[in-house]
Design brief:
Length: 493
């Protein structure tokens, strides 16, 4: 039986403009610059008055009253001229016109990819076209580290299903062996053990390298777990050898000089890839103990409504031919572009205000660190702490701190660096987990590498310093620092 019910609900739905404004908070400086450039290209009613091509006369006449495009403007040009100007690219209106056009060839170069580099080497081996095609497919399955982690049987099935080529696994194995002879050494290996062996086998056979090959061939599992005593006992006992700890140490040194990721070595043959971080905030500590906070100048562009579009808006508003469909459409178009430009300018102002207030709250909480650069001075800080101080929602603080960086006297840091949990020490003071991790790392860095400290010993040392934490917590912090267990930290001195 069907029944009708009347219910009342209160829902909050974000408008598309609000969603865009929220997304702008997540952008870092470079992404925001690209977003501004995109808006300048798409909206002719928006102009960057800090641009070197800006009209100086326009700068003098522009004021805040022009922002709402509601004032009376005299000497407005004919509307049809403005509509025709929409077909002309913005850059063409600003560039200087030359009577003669100079054409100059620009040199063009394209670096060779890693796959092409390997394939060109393979072609020098005078193989048939069919084998070259097989080799090209095998090279395409080599991962970024330089490993071929797929077996010949799987590659054979792929060639049959995808390309209709009946290639036996033995033929694939033969071509794969040829690829392993290419440069860089170790390329095409199925695992790290084979990769290291391929590199050693190309080197001159010294006593240290012969022992290194023996270690990888027969004792790889014990070697990876650093069970050096077990390896020496087996070499000198069962094998009847006469190897000393010094011999083993030299062989291990030869292995550590090898490249476990030969695919990454390609970057040294091509253009160096550098990732440059552009700070979103600048915090400077003065000698007088003061902190100066600012946003980079490029993060606050001088955007304004185009004077031409403001005058065009006034012209259409005062036009007596509003009943004309073309005029109404033109008026709607200009109004939509001006409204969009207004919203974008307001959104940037609101974004900068939110960034400033949030960063000031972080500085206030972590003032000691910004003054000294000492990580132990970092206080426990959560998103909620910053939210309560600056007055914004936790989600807003999270978006501001995402992918943002701050430049300080002590280096450039991600905003996420300043957020951490805290624990209470024996004196009842709340300390940052980062402080405990720093102390834990210092214990491990200064330990006797022949007898590295276990997690239980580290727990005892931390307790002596006033940090009473469980052994499993020590293990968790150690893993977060990417430090292996004591057995894997053992070295032969």
């Amino acid at each position: 039986m069907l029944k009708q019910h009347l219910t009342q609900k209160q829902q909050q739905k974000l408008s598309p403009a609000q969603i865009q404004q929220i997304k702008m908070l997540e952008l870092n400086s470079l992404e925001m610059d690209n977003r501004i450039c995109q808006e300048l290209e798409e909206n002719p009613a928006l102009e960057d008055f800090s641009d070197s091509f800006s009209d100086p006369d326009m700068d003098e006449t522009a004021d805040e009253n022009e922002y709402d495009a509601s004032g009376d403007k005299n000497n407005a040009d004919d509307a049809d001229d403005y509509l025709m100007a929409d077909d002309i690219p913005y850059y063409a209106l600003n560039q200087r016109q030359n009577t003669e056009t100079n054409y100059r060839e620009i040199p063009y170069s394209e670096s060779e990819s890693f796959g092409e580099y390997l394939l060109n080497q393979l072609r020098l081996k005078n193989l048939s076209e069919e084998k070259i095609r097989i080799g090209e497919y095998i090279i395409g399955n080599i991962d970024d580290d330089g490993y071929l982690r797929r077996d010949p049987e799987s590659l054979s099935d792929d060639l049959a299903f995808q390309y209709g080529l009946e290639v036996q696994p033995e033929a694939i194995r033969e071509i794969a062996d040829l690829i392993r002879q290419l440069d860089p050494a170790g390329i095409g290996a199925s695992d790290i053990r084979e990769c290291l062996l391929l590199q050693l086998q190309r080197k001159e056979k010294t006593p240290e390298r012969r022992l290194a090959i023996l270690l990888l061939q027969n004792y790889f599992e014990s070697f990876s777990k650093k069970k050096y005593d077990k390896i020496l006992n087996h070499l000198n006992g069962v094998k009847g050898g006469s190897f000393s700890e010094e011999d083993l140490k030299n062989a291990i040194k030869e292995i550590t000089l090898l490249n476990p990721r030969p695919g990454n070595s390609w970057e040294s043959h091509t253009e160096t890839k550098m990732s440059q971080i552009t700070p979103d905030f600048i915090v400077e500590a003065t000698n007088g103990g003061e902190l100066l906070f600012s946003l980079p100048e490029e993060s606050t562009p001088e955007l304004r409504i185009s004077r031409e579009y403001s005058e065009m808006m006034t012209s259409y508003a005062q036009s007596s031919g509003k009943e004309n469909a073309a005029t109404r459409d033109a008026f709607a178009f200009v109004k939509q572009k001006i409204d969009s430009a207004k919203w974008f300018i307001d959104a940037i102002k609101q974004r900068n205000t939110t960034l400033r207030q949030t960063m000031k709250s972080i500085i206030e909480i972590q003032r000691d660190f910004f003054l000294t650069g000492d990580e132990s001075a970092l206080k426990p800080m959560k998103l909620r702490d910053v939210s309560e101080l600056c007055g914004y929602d936790i989600s807003t603080v999270s978006r501001v701190s995402n992918s943002k960086y701050v430049q300080t006297n002590w280096g450039v840091y991600s905003l996420r660096f300043f957020f951490s949990d805290g624990i209470t020490n024996e004196e009842g003071e709340e300390v940052s987990v980062r402080e405990i991790k720093t102390l834990l790392k210092s214990f491990i860095d200064t330990e006797d590498k022949t007898k590295p400290m276990s997690d239980d010993v580290l727990m005892s040392k931390l307790k002596q310093e006033g940090y009473d934490i469980a052994r499993r917590t020590v293990a968790k912090y150690r893993e977060q620092l990417n430090i292996p267990v004591a057995r894997l930290r053992k070295e032969i001195i």
